[in-house]
DNA sequence: TCGTATCTTTACCAAATGGTAAAAAAGCGG
DNA sequence: CCGCTTTTTTACCATTTGGTAAAGATACGA
Protein backbone atom coordinates (compact mmCIF):
# COMPACT_ATOMS: atom_id res chain seq x y z
CA UNK A 1 0.00 0.00 0.00
CA UNK A 2 2.08 2.88 -1.33
CA UNK A 3 1.45 6.40 -0.16
CA UNK A 4 -0.32 8.98 -2.23
CA UNK A 5 1.94 10.80 -4.73
CA UNK A 6 1.98 13.98 -2.72
CA UNK A 7 3.87 12.17 0.03
CA UNK A 8 6.79 11.02 -2.11
CA UNK A 9 9.67 13.38 -2.72
CA UNK A 10 7.53 16.28 -3.82
CA UNK A 11 7.98 17.84 -7.23
CA UNK A 12 10.61 15.25 -8.00
CA UNK A 13 9.91 14.40 -11.61
CA UNK A 14 12.00 11.24 -11.47
CA UNK A 15 9.74 9.42 -9.02
CA UNK A 16 6.51 10.33 -10.78
CA UNK A 17 4.63 8.10 -13.19
CA UNK A 18 3.50 9.39 -16.55
CA UNK A 19 -0.04 9.83 -15.27
CA UNK A 20 1.13 11.73 -12.21
CA UNK A 21 3.29 13.99 -14.33
CA UNK A 22 0.46 14.71 -16.72
CA UNK A 23 -2.22 15.31 -14.10
CA UNK A 24 -0.08 17.36 -11.75
CA UNK A 25 0.77 19.45 -14.79
CA UNK A 26 -2.86 19.90 -15.71
CA UNK A 27 -3.77 20.84 -12.17
CA UNK A 28 -0.98 23.37 -11.84
CA UNK A 29 -1.90 24.92 -15.17
CA UNK A 30 -5.55 25.15 -14.20
CA UNK A 31 -4.64 26.53 -10.79
CA UNK A 32 -2.40 29.14 -12.36
CA UNK A 33 -5.32 30.23 -14.48
CA UNK A 34 -7.63 30.55 -11.50
CA UNK A 35 -5.27 31.81 -8.79
CA UNK A 36 -3.79 34.46 -11.10
CA UNK A 37 -7.27 35.83 -11.68
CA UNK A 38 -8.90 35.62 -8.27
CA UNK A 39 -6.03 35.33 -5.80
CA UNK A 40 -5.76 32.61 -3.21
CA UNK A 41 -8.90 33.34 -1.26
CA UNK A 42 -11.03 34.10 -4.29
CA UNK A 43 -10.13 30.90 -6.10
CA UNK A 44 -12.02 27.68 -5.44
CA UNK A 45 -11.04 24.05 -5.81
CA UNK A 46 -14.16 23.50 -7.88
CA UNK A 47 -13.01 26.10 -10.40
CA UNK A 48 -9.57 24.52 -10.57
CA UNK A 49 -11.03 21.04 -10.90
CA UNK A 50 -13.36 22.23 -13.65
CA UNK A 51 -10.56 23.98 -15.50
CA UNK A 52 -8.32 20.94 -15.19
CA UNK A 53 -11.02 18.53 -16.32
CA UNK A 54 -10.64 16.48 -13.15
CA UNK A 55 -12.87 15.87 -10.16
CA UNK A 56 -12.22 17.72 -6.93
CA UNK A 57 -11.29 14.63 -4.90
CA UNK A 58 -9.00 13.61 -7.72
CA UNK A 59 -7.17 16.90 -7.36
CA UNK A 60 -6.80 16.30 -3.65
CA UNK A 61 -5.24 12.96 -4.52
CA UNK A 62 -2.37 14.80 -6.21
CA UNK A 63 -2.04 17.72 -3.81
CA UNK A 64 -2.47 18.00 -0.07
CA UNK A 65 -4.93 20.85 -0.42
CA UNK A 66 -5.57 24.26 -1.88
CA UNK A 67 -2.62 25.78 -0.07
CA UNK A 68 -0.28 23.07 -1.33
CA UNK A 69 -1.18 23.84 -4.93
CA UNK A 70 -0.67 27.54 -4.39
CA UNK A 71 2.68 27.12 -2.68
CA UNK A 72 3.86 24.77 -5.42
CA UNK A 73 2.97 27.36 -8.04
CA UNK A 74 4.68 30.13 -6.12
CA UNK A 75 7.87 28.11 -5.70
CA UNK A 76 7.99 27.25 -9.39
CA UNK A 77 7.39 30.90 -10.18
CA UNK A 78 10.18 32.37 -8.08
CA UNK A 79 12.90 30.51 -9.96
CA UNK A 80 11.66 31.60 -13.33
CA UNK A 81 10.98 35.10 -12.09
CA UNK A 82 14.42 35.80 -10.70
CA UNK A 83 16.36 34.15 -13.51
CA UNK A 84 16.70 37.28 -15.70
CA UNK A 85 18.15 39.31 -12.85
CA UNK A 86 20.60 36.50 -12.04
CA UNK A 87 21.72 36.51 -15.65
CA UNK A 88 22.88 40.10 -15.59
CA UNK A 89 26.58 39.80 -16.33
CA UNK A 90 28.93 41.89 -14.16
CA UNK A 91 31.52 41.63 -16.89
CA UNK A 92 29.25 42.77 -19.71
CA UNK A 93 28.63 46.31 -20.91
CA UNK A 94 26.63 48.00 -18.11
CA UNK A 95 24.06 49.80 -20.23
CA UNK A 96 23.50 46.87 -22.58
CA UNK A 97 23.26 44.41 -19.70
CA UNK A 98 20.53 46.45 -18.06
CA UNK A 99 18.69 46.98 -21.32
CA UNK A 100 18.80 43.27 -21.96
CA UNK A 101 17.30 42.78 -18.52
CA UNK A 102 14.49 45.16 -19.43
CA UNK A 103 13.80 43.25 -22.64
CA UNK A 104 13.84 39.90 -20.88
CA UNK A 105 11.37 41.13 -18.25
CA UNK A 106 9.10 42.57 -20.92
CA UNK A 107 9.20 39.32 -22.86
CA UNK A 108 8.33 37.37 -19.75
CA UNK A 109 5.44 39.70 -19.11
CA UNK A 110 4.15 38.92 -22.58
CA UNK A 111 4.96 35.22 -22.51
CA UNK A 112 3.86 34.49 -18.94
CA UNK A 113 1.17 37.01 -18.05
CA UNK A 114 -0.58 34.57 -15.71
CA UNK A 115 2.58 34.06 -13.71
CA UNK A 116 2.96 37.82 -13.46
CA UNK A 117 -0.59 38.20 -12.20
CA UNK A 118 -0.18 35.35 -9.74
CA UNK A 119 2.80 37.15 -8.28
CA UNK A 120 0.99 40.49 -8.29
CA UNK A 121 -1.96 38.97 -6.48
CA UNK A 122 0.27 37.48 -3.81
CA UNK A 123 2.07 40.78 -3.21
CA UNK A 124 -1.18 42.75 -3.23
CA UNK A 125 -2.42 40.57 -0.40
CA UNK A 126 0.67 41.37 1.63
CA UNK A 127 2.82 38.44 0.49
CA UNK A 128 1.47 36.13 3.21
CA UNK A 129 2.84 32.99 1.59
CA UNK A 130 5.81 34.28 -0.41
CA UNK A 131 7.08 36.77 2.16
CA UNK A 132 9.81 34.53 3.64
CA UNK A 133 10.77 33.56 0.11
CA UNK A 134 11.27 37.21 -0.75
CA UNK A 135 13.59 37.74 2.17
CA UNK A 136 15.55 34.58 1.58
CA UNK A 137 15.94 34.68 -2.22
CA UNK A 138 14.92 38.05 -3.61
CA UNK A 139 16.50 40.34 -1.07
CA UNK A 140 20.08 39.02 -1.40
CA UNK A 141 19.79 38.97 -5.18
CA UNK A 142 18.56 42.55 -5.26
CA UNK A 143 21.24 43.66 -2.81
CA UNK A 144 23.86 42.09 -5.03
CA UNK A 145 22.40 43.72 -8.14
CA UNK A 146 22.18 47.09 -6.43
CA UNK A 147 25.84 46.85 -5.48
CA UNK A 148 26.77 45.92 -9.03
CA UNK A 149 24.83 48.82 -10.52
CA UNK A 150 26.35 51.18 -7.97
CA UNK A 151 29.82 50.05 -9.01
CA UNK A 152 28.94 50.67 -12.63
CA UNK A 153 27.70 54.14 -11.74
CA UNK A 154 30.82 54.92 -9.72
CA UNK A 155 32.91 53.80 -12.67
CA UNK A 156 31.07 56.34 -14.80
CA UNK A 157 29.49 53.72 -17.05
CA UNK A 158 25.93 54.71 -16.07
CA UNK A 159 24.17 57.91 -15.10
CA UNK A 160 23.73 58.51 -11.39
CA UNK A 161 20.49 56.73 -10.47
CA UNK A 162 19.22 55.09 -7.31
CA UNK A 163 19.73 51.43 -8.24
CA UNK A 164 16.91 50.17 -6.04
CA UNK A 165 14.32 52.51 -7.49
CA UNK A 166 15.66 51.73 -10.95
CA UNK A 167 14.88 48.07 -10.38
CA UNK A 168 11.41 48.95 -9.13
CA UNK A 169 10.80 51.00 -12.27
CA UNK A 170 11.88 48.17 -14.51
CA UNK A 171 9.61 45.74 -12.72
CA UNK A 172 6.69 48.16 -12.67
CA UNK A 173 6.83 49.16 -16.34
CA UNK A 174 7.35 45.68 -17.72
CA UNK A 175 4.90 43.82 -15.51
CA UNK A 176 2.28 46.48 -16.10
CA UNK A 177 1.57 45.02 -19.54
CA UNK A 178 0.66 41.70 -17.97
CA UNK A 179 -0.94 42.78 -14.71
CA UNK A 180 -3.06 45.57 -16.20
CA UNK A 181 -3.71 43.78 -19.47
CA UNK A 182 -7.45 44.37 -19.14
CA UNK A 183 -6.88 48.12 -18.96
CA UNK A 184 -4.17 48.21 -21.62
CA UNK A 185 -6.51 46.28 -23.88
CA UNK A 186 -9.25 48.87 -23.54
CA UNK A 187 -6.91 51.77 -24.20
CA UNK A 188 -4.97 50.15 -27.04
CA UNK A 189 -7.83 48.45 -28.82
CA UNK A 190 -6.79 47.52 -32.31
CA UNK A 191 -3.31 48.89 -31.83
CA UNK A 192 -0.24 46.72 -31.63
CA UNK A 193 1.09 46.69 -28.07
CA UNK A 194 4.24 44.61 -28.03
CA UNK A 195 6.63 46.44 -30.35
CA UNK A 196 5.45 49.83 -29.14
CA UNK A 197 6.10 48.84 -25.56
CA UNK A 198 9.58 47.63 -26.39
CA UNK A 199 10.51 50.80 -28.24
CA UNK A 200 9.11 52.94 -25.46
CA UNK A 201 10.87 51.15 -22.62
CA UNK A 202 14.06 51.18 -24.64
CA UNK A 203 13.88 54.96 -24.89
CA UNK A 204 12.79 55.37 -21.28
CA UNK A 205 15.63 53.44 -19.66
CA UNK A 206 18.30 54.22 -22.22
CA UNK A 207 17.81 57.92 -21.66
CA UNK A 208 17.77 57.47 -17.92
CA UNK A 209 20.91 55.36 -17.78
CA UNK A 210 23.12 56.86 -20.46
CA UNK A 211 25.72 58.89 -18.58
CA UNK B 1 -42.76 52.66 6.97
CA UNK B 2 -39.99 54.35 5.06
CA UNK B 3 -37.78 52.31 2.81
CA UNK B 4 -34.31 51.22 3.76
CA UNK B 5 -31.63 53.85 3.10
CA UNK B 6 -30.19 51.99 0.16
CA UNK B 7 -33.41 52.65 -1.76
CA UNK B 8 -33.34 56.41 -1.48
CA UNK B 9 -31.29 58.43 -3.94
CA UNK B 10 -28.12 56.47 -3.44
CA UNK B 11 -24.95 58.17 -2.27
CA UNK B 12 -26.89 61.40 -2.01
CA UNK B 13 -25.48 62.88 1.16
CA UNK B 14 -28.33 65.37 1.49
CA UNK B 15 -31.03 62.76 2.09
CA UNK B 16 -29.02 60.76 4.62
CA UNK B 17 -29.31 61.05 8.36
CA UNK B 18 -26.24 61.50 10.53
CA UNK B 19 -26.32 57.84 11.49
CA UNK B 20 -26.63 56.73 7.89
CA UNK B 21 -23.76 58.95 6.88
CA UNK B 22 -21.56 57.66 9.66
CA UNK B 23 -22.34 53.98 9.20
CA UNK B 24 -22.17 53.99 5.43
CA UNK B 25 -18.80 55.67 5.83
CA UNK B 26 -17.61 53.05 8.27
CA UNK B 27 -18.77 50.26 6.01
CA UNK B 28 -17.12 51.70 2.92
CA UNK B 29 -13.88 52.22 4.80
CA UNK B 30 -13.92 48.68 6.14
CA UNK B 31 -14.83 47.32 2.71
CA UNK B 32 -11.98 49.25 1.13
CA UNK B 33 -9.61 47.65 3.60
CA UNK B 34 -10.86 44.16 2.83
CA UNK B 35 -11.58 44.37 -0.90
CA UNK B 36 -8.23 46.03 -1.61
CA UNK B 37 -6.48 43.14 0.05
CA UNK B 38 -8.45 40.12 -1.11
CA UNK B 39 -10.34 41.26 -4.20
CA UNK B 40 -14.07 40.90 -4.63
CA UNK B 41 -14.33 37.14 -4.46
CA UNK B 42 -11.79 36.75 -1.69
CA UNK B 43 -13.45 39.28 0.59
CA UNK B 44 -16.29 38.25 2.87
CA UNK B 45 -19.12 40.23 4.39
CA UNK B 46 -18.13 38.87 7.78
CA UNK B 47 -14.67 40.39 7.43
CA UNK B 48 -16.16 43.71 6.40
CA UNK B 49 -18.69 43.62 9.22
CA UNK B 50 -15.96 42.80 11.70
CA UNK B 51 -13.71 45.57 10.43
CA UNK B 52 -16.58 48.05 10.49
CA UNK B 53 -17.68 47.06 13.98
CA UNK B 54 -21.21 46.32 12.77
CA UNK B 55 -23.21 43.14 12.41
CA UNK B 56 -23.59 41.53 9.02
CA UNK B 57 -27.35 42.08 8.76
CA UNK B 58 -26.76 45.66 9.81
CA UNK B 59 -24.43 46.09 6.86
CA UNK B 60 -27.07 44.68 4.55
CA UNK B 61 -29.43 47.28 5.91
CA UNK B 62 -27.23 50.00 4.43
CA UNK B 63 -26.23 48.24 1.22
CA UNK B 64 -28.09 45.91 -1.10
CA UNK B 65 -25.33 43.34 -0.92
CA UNK B 66 -21.65 42.63 -1.36
CA UNK B 67 -21.70 43.72 -4.97
CA UNK B 68 -23.40 47.00 -4.12
CA UNK B 69 -20.64 47.89 -1.67
CA UNK B 70 -17.96 47.03 -4.19
CA UNK B 71 -19.56 49.00 -6.99
CA UNK B 72 -20.04 52.00 -4.70
CA UNK B 73 -16.35 51.91 -3.82
CA UNK B 74 -15.31 51.59 -7.44
CA UNK B 75 -17.47 54.51 -8.51
CA UNK B 76 -16.07 56.72 -5.75
CA UNK B 77 -12.60 55.65 -6.76
CA UNK B 78 -12.83 56.46 -10.44
CA UNK B 79 -13.51 60.14 -9.84
CA UNK B 80 -10.57 60.53 -7.52
CA UNK B 81 -8.37 58.41 -9.71
CA UNK B 82 -8.88 60.32 -12.94
CA UNK B 83 -8.79 63.79 -11.39
CA UNK B 84 -5.03 64.32 -11.76
CA UNK B 85 -5.11 63.52 -15.46
CA UNK B 86 -8.08 65.86 -15.94
CA UNK B 87 -6.10 68.62 -14.26
CA UNK B 88 -3.28 68.54 -16.80
CA UNK B 89 -3.42 72.05 -18.26
CA UNK B 90 -3.14 72.28 -22.07
CA UNK B 91 -2.01 75.85 -21.67
CA UNK B 92 0.71 75.13 -19.12
CA UNK B 93 4.33 74.28 -19.79
CA UNK B 94 4.29 70.77 -21.31
CA UNK B 95 7.20 69.26 -19.39
CA UNK B 96 6.18 70.79 -16.07
CA UNK B 97 2.55 69.81 -16.54
CA UNK B 98 3.51 66.17 -17.08
CA UNK B 99 5.97 66.20 -14.20
CA UNK B 100 3.28 67.61 -11.98
CA UNK B 101 1.04 64.78 -13.07
CA UNK B 102 3.75 62.30 -12.10
CA UNK B 103 4.08 63.90 -8.66
CA UNK B 104 0.33 63.92 -8.11
CA UNK B 105 0.04 60.25 -9.04
CA UNK B 106 2.92 59.37 -6.75
CA UNK B 107 1.38 61.31 -3.91
CA UNK B 108 -1.92 59.54 -4.43
CA UNK B 109 -0.14 56.22 -4.38
CA UNK B 110 1.30 57.16 -1.00
CA UNK B 111 -1.83 58.78 0.37
CA UNK B 112 -4.38 56.27 -0.93
CA UNK B 113 -2.61 52.93 -1.25
CA UNK B 114 -5.77 50.98 -0.51
CA UNK B 115 -7.60 52.67 -3.35
CA UNK B 116 -4.70 51.85 -5.63
CA UNK B 117 -4.80 48.21 -4.63
CA UNK B 118 -8.58 48.06 -4.99
CA UNK B 119 -8.19 49.25 -8.54
CA UNK B 120 -5.30 46.88 -9.21
CA UNK B 121 -7.33 43.96 -7.91
CA UNK B 122 -10.25 44.83 -10.15
CA UNK B 123 -8.05 45.10 -13.25
CA UNK B 124 -6.15 41.93 -12.38
CA UNK B 125 -9.44 40.06 -12.39
CA UNK B 126 -10.18 41.34 -15.88
CA UNK B 127 -12.12 44.47 -14.89
CA UNK B 128 -15.46 42.60 -14.67
CA UNK B 129 -17.22 45.41 -12.83
CA UNK B 130 -15.27 48.48 -13.89
CA UNK B 131 -14.81 47.55 -17.54
CA UNK B 132 -17.70 49.62 -18.92
CA UNK B 133 -16.57 52.46 -16.68
CA UNK B 134 -13.14 52.33 -18.28
CA UNK B 135 -14.56 52.58 -21.77
CA UNK B 136 -16.99 55.35 -20.89
CA UNK B 137 -14.77 57.56 -18.70
CA UNK B 138 -11.15 56.53 -18.93
CA UNK B 139 -10.83 55.91 -22.65
CA UNK B 140 -12.03 59.35 -23.81
CA UNK B 141 -9.90 61.04 -21.17
CA UNK B 142 -6.82 59.13 -22.25
CA UNK B 143 -7.52 59.78 -25.91
CA UNK B 144 -7.76 63.45 -25.17
CA UNK B 145 -4.54 63.40 -23.16
CA UNK B 146 -2.74 61.44 -25.86
CA UNK B 147 -3.79 64.01 -28.43
CA UNK B 148 -2.59 66.83 -26.21
CA UNK B 149 0.80 65.21 -25.60
CA UNK B 150 1.15 64.52 -29.31
CA UNK B 151 0.52 68.19 -30.05
CA UNK B 152 3.17 69.14 -27.53
CA UNK B 153 5.60 66.74 -29.15
CA UNK B 154 4.82 68.03 -32.62
CA UNK B 155 5.42 71.55 -31.35
CA UNK B 156 8.87 70.47 -30.23
CA UNK B 157 8.13 71.01 -26.54
CA UNK B 158 8.68 67.36 -25.65
CA UNK B 159 10.90 64.56 -26.89
CA UNK B 160 9.30 62.13 -29.34
CA UNK B 161 7.59 59.51 -27.18
CA UNK B 162 4.56 57.30 -27.65
CA UNK B 163 2.05 59.19 -25.49
CA UNK B 164 0.01 56.12 -24.66
CA UNK B 165 2.97 54.10 -23.45
CA UNK B 166 4.18 57.16 -21.59
CA UNK B 167 0.94 57.22 -19.64
CA UNK B 168 1.23 53.51 -18.92
CA UNK B 169 4.75 54.08 -17.59
CA UNK B 170 3.62 56.86 -15.32
CA UNK B 171 0.79 54.74 -13.94
CA UNK B 172 3.00 51.69 -13.54
CA UNK B 173 5.89 53.39 -11.77
CA UNK B 174 3.79 55.47 -9.40
CA UNK B 175 1.23 52.84 -8.49
CA UNK B 176 3.96 50.29 -7.96
CA UNK B 177 4.78 51.85 -4.59
CA UNK B 178 1.24 51.21 -3.39
CA UNK B 179 0.40 47.94 -5.13
CA UNK B 180 3.72 46.22 -4.38
CA UNK B 181 4.18 47.83 -1.00
CA UNK B 182 4.78 44.45 0.62
CA UNK B 183 7.69 43.81 -1.72
CA UNK B 184 9.06 47.34 -1.60
CA UNK B 185 8.96 47.11 2.17
CA UNK B 186 11.11 43.98 2.19
CA UNK B 187 13.68 45.46 -0.20
CA UNK B 188 13.82 48.91 1.36
CA UNK B 189 13.69 47.94 5.00
CA UNK B 190 14.80 50.81 7.14
CA UNK B 191 15.37 53.05 4.15
CA UNK B 192 13.22 56.04 3.38
CA UNK B 193 11.05 55.34 0.33
CA UNK B 194 9.06 58.45 -0.42
CA UNK B 195 11.68 61.09 -1.22
CA UNK B 196 13.87 58.59 -3.06
CA UNK B 197 10.95 57.57 -5.23
CA UNK B 198 10.15 61.16 -6.06
CA UNK B 199 13.71 62.00 -7.01
CA UNK B 200 14.00 58.86 -9.10
CA UNK B 201 10.77 59.35 -11.03
CA UNK B 202 11.68 62.98 -11.56
CA UNK B 203 14.94 61.93 -13.21
CA UNK B 204 13.29 59.09 -15.14
CA UNK B 205 10.57 61.11 -16.80
CA UNK B 206 12.44 64.38 -17.07
CA UNK B 207 15.19 62.69 -19.04
CA UNK B 208 12.69 60.89 -21.20
CA UNK B 209 10.63 63.94 -22.02
CA UNK B 210 13.18 66.71 -22.30
CA UNK B 211 13.55 67.32 -26.03
C1' DT C 1 -43.72 61.63 26.85
C1' DC C 2 -45.75 59.36 23.37
C1' DG C 3 -45.84 57.35 18.77
C1' DT C 4 -43.72 56.62 14.65
C1' DA C 5 -39.85 55.82 11.81
C1' DT C 6 -35.13 54.44 11.93
C1' DC C 7 -31.79 51.36 13.25
C1' DT C 8 -29.92 46.86 15.30
C1' DT C 9 -30.02 42.27 16.76
C1' DT C 10 -31.35 37.42 16.86
C1' DA C 11 -32.28 33.44 14.64
C1' DC C 12 -32.22 31.49 10.68
C1' DC C 13 -31.48 29.40 5.59
C1' DA C 14 -29.76 27.54 1.17
C1' DA C 15 -25.80 27.24 -1.42
C1' DA C 16 -20.94 26.92 -1.82
C1' DT C 17 -16.59 25.44 -0.13
C1' DG C 18 -12.49 22.68 1.44
C1' DG C 19 -11.92 18.27 2.51
C1' DT C 20 -12.57 12.91 3.56
C1' DA C 21 -13.72 7.75 3.37
C1' DA C 22 -14.16 4.11 0.86
C1' DA C 23 -15.57 1.66 -3.03
C1' DA C 24 -14.89 1.08 -7.98
C1' DA C 25 -12.05 1.26 -12.03
C1' DA C 26 -7.91 1.30 -14.61
C1' DG C 27 -2.85 0.21 -15.27
C1' DC C 28 0.62 -2.70 -15.37
C1' DG C 29 4.52 -6.06 -14.34
C1' DG C 30 4.84 -10.95 -14.27
C1' DC D 1 -4.70 -13.23 -17.76
C1' DC D 2 -3.76 -12.49 -12.74
C1' DG D 3 -2.91 -9.90 -8.77
C1' DC D 4 -1.42 -5.80 -6.91
C1' DT D 5 -0.87 -0.92 -7.19
C1' DT D 6 -2.32 3.38 -8.79
C1' DT D 7 -5.97 6.28 -10.08
C1' DT D 8 -10.81 7.88 -10.16
C1' DT D 9 -15.46 8.19 -8.67
C1' DT D 10 -19.32 8.34 -5.47
C1' DA D 11 -21.25 9.78 -1.51
C1' DC D 12 -20.60 12.38 2.08
C1' DC D 13 -19.51 16.12 5.93
C1' DA D 14 -18.59 20.37 8.66
C1' DT D 15 -17.88 25.08 7.99
C1' DT D 16 -18.32 29.28 5.71
C1' DT D 17 -20.78 32.44 3.01
C1' DG D 18 -24.21 35.76 1.17
C1' DG D 19 -28.51 36.84 2.43
C1' DT D 20 -33.44 37.18 4.85
C1' DA D 21 -37.40 37.64 8.29
C1' DA D 22 -38.90 39.50 12.02
C1' DA D 23 -38.57 40.93 16.60
C1' DG D 24 -36.39 44.28 19.57
C1' DA D 25 -34.15 48.65 20.64
C1' DT D 26 -33.31 53.42 19.79
C1' DA D 27 -33.86 58.12 18.07
C1' DC D 28 -36.61 61.93 17.39
C1' DG D 29 -40.27 65.20 16.19
C1' DA D 30 -44.82 66.73 17.93
Q: Can you give keywords for this protein?
A:
homodimer; 211 residues; mainly alpha; Arc Repressor Mutant, subunit A; Tetracycline Repressor, domain 2; 10 helices; globular; DNA-binding
The CATH superfamily of the largest domain in chain A appears as Tetracycline Repressor, domain 2
Low-confidence stretches of chain A: 7-13
The tally of strands of chain A reads 0
Largest sheet of chain A: none
Q: Roughly how much helix do the residues of chain A carry, as a percent range? A: over 70%
Biggest interface found? A-B, 54 and 54 residues
β content of chain A, as a range? under 5%
Task: Identify the CATH architecture of the largest domain in chain A.
Answer: Orthogonal Bundle
Report the CATH topology name of the largest domain in chain A: Tetracycline Repressor, domain 2
Q: Please identify the structural class of chain A as seen in this structure.
A: mainly alpha
Radius of gyration of chain A: 20 Å
Number of domains of chain A: 2
**Per the principal axes of the C-alpha atoms, what is the gross shape of chain A?**
globular
Oligomer category: homodimer
Q: List the total number of helices of chain A.
A: 10
Query: What is the CATH C level class of the largest domain in chain A, in words?
Result: Mainly Alpha
Kindly, what is the distance between the CA atoms of the first and last residues of chain A, rounded to a whole number of angstroms?
67 Å
Average the pLDDT over all residues of chain A and give the rounded result: 93
Amino acid sequence: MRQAPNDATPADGATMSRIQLRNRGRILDAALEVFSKYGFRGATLDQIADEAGLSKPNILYYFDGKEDIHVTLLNQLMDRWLAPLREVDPKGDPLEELMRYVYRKLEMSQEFPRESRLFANEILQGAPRIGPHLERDLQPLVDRSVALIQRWIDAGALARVDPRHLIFSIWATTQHYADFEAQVGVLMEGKEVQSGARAHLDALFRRLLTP
